[in-house]
Amino acid sequence: QAQLVESGGGAVQAGGSLRLSCAASGRTFSNYIMGWFRQSPGKEREFVARVGWHSGYTFTYYADSVKGRFTIARDNAKNTVYLQMNSLNPEDTAVYYCAAAASPTSSRDYTRERHYDYWGQGTQVTVSS
Question: Which one of 18, 36, 65, 93 has the lowest number of neighbouring Cβ atoms within 10 Å?
Answer without folding.
Answer: 65
